Amino acid sequence: MTKPIITKEQVKHIADLAKIDLSPHEIEKYQKELASILEYVKKIQEVDTKKIDFKTHVGVKNVYREDVPTESLTQEEAVSQAKNKYGYIIVPTVITKK
Question: For this UniProt entry, which residues form the secretion signal (predicted)?
Fold first, then answer.
């Protein structure tokens, strides 16, 4: 049996780092999806690029649009539905000091 490209433990570890709780079903689902993505990346890495000049660009063109102001929420409207303090939205602590 071949070793999977990504294990369920690795998926769980990634989810923990991102502070995401996953059910066992979701871990299995994301293991398959991530394995598919990683297999595709592996194929791309196998492409022979020795004869390619990476200093050239293929038809790069900037597409601009007019910068037109539009209506948006006021600060009061934006924070009215969220937990807030002094006009700022309060979010859970993600990064902690050790």
Answer: none
Whether the CB-CB separation of 35 and 5 falls below 8 Å is answered with yes
- Cut 0.70: pTM above it: no
Domain boundaries along the sequence of the chain:
1-46
* Distance (Å, whole) CA 58 – CA 28: 40
CATH superfamily of 1-46: Glu-tRNAGln amidotransferase C subunit, N-terminal domain (1.10.20.60)
